[in-house]
Amino acid sequence: MSKLLKWMCVVTLTIGCACTSPTTKTAEPAVKALSPQEVVDECTTPHEVYQVPPSILVGTPVLVVRHADCMGQPSLVVAIWPGANDKLHTLYIGAVIEKYAMYLKLNGEYFDAEHVATSQITSIGGQTGPKSDLDAVPTFAAVFRLNHTPAPPEEEVSESTPDSLDRVR
User: Most exposed among 50, 70, 84, 135, judged by the fewest C-beta atoms under 10 Å?
Assistant: First the structure.
């Protein structure tokens, strides 16, 4: 009886292992590491450019540059600013880019901004400025990848007009 029980356990274990399919994870496509200096030098034809004036809080102007199909990425945004790369500037730049993503959503483009890298840059488009300008104020760039998000479902538009609102009052 014990031989039969052992034999049934071995057969059950063998069948159980043979019937399961191995789980293989598909490799995610490799994302090339992007440095701000490389993006600023390589991506020289912007899709959109916006100048954000200095705010009362930070006092630093920001140049927001969107690139389409550059360096193997479908959509990149670069924020360039003079001054410092401290926590205040990092938070401010993040807020500016989030506001830009909100602007895109209002225009029917749905993206989430993913921060890739931030560092000091020494040239823009491969061209350096006068030595005194580069030494006087350091310039920083932050690169953000725009990832598509699904559009929210269309809300049914009610046929309320100003006339129908007048009737409610």
Answer: 135
Q: Give φ, ψ of 82 to 5 degrees.
A: -90, 155
Closest by CA to 75, choosing from 83, 66, 65, 84, is: 66
- How many Cβ atoms sit within 10 Å of the Cβ of residue 68? 14
Rounded to whole angstroms, how far apart are CA atoms 87 and 3? 71
Cα dihedral 120, 124, 128, 130, rounded to 10, equals -80
The amino acid sitting at 73 is Q
Whole-model pTM over 0.90: no
63 burial level (CB within 10 Å; 0-12, 13-18, 19+): middle
Q: Three-state DSSP class for 2?
A: helix
Strands 111-121 and 73-82, bridge-based pairing: unpaired
Please, which residues have CB within 8 angstroms of residue 122's CB and are 6 or more apart in sequence? 37, 128, 134, 139
Contact 85, 157 (CB under 8 A): no
Reported as a single tens digit per residue, the pLDDT across 87-125 is 999 999 999 999 999 999 998 899 999 999 999 998 776
Q: List % helix, strand, coil for the chain (3-state, nearest 5).
A: 35, 30, 40
Among residues 89, 71, 88, which one has the least CA distance to residue 80?
A: 89
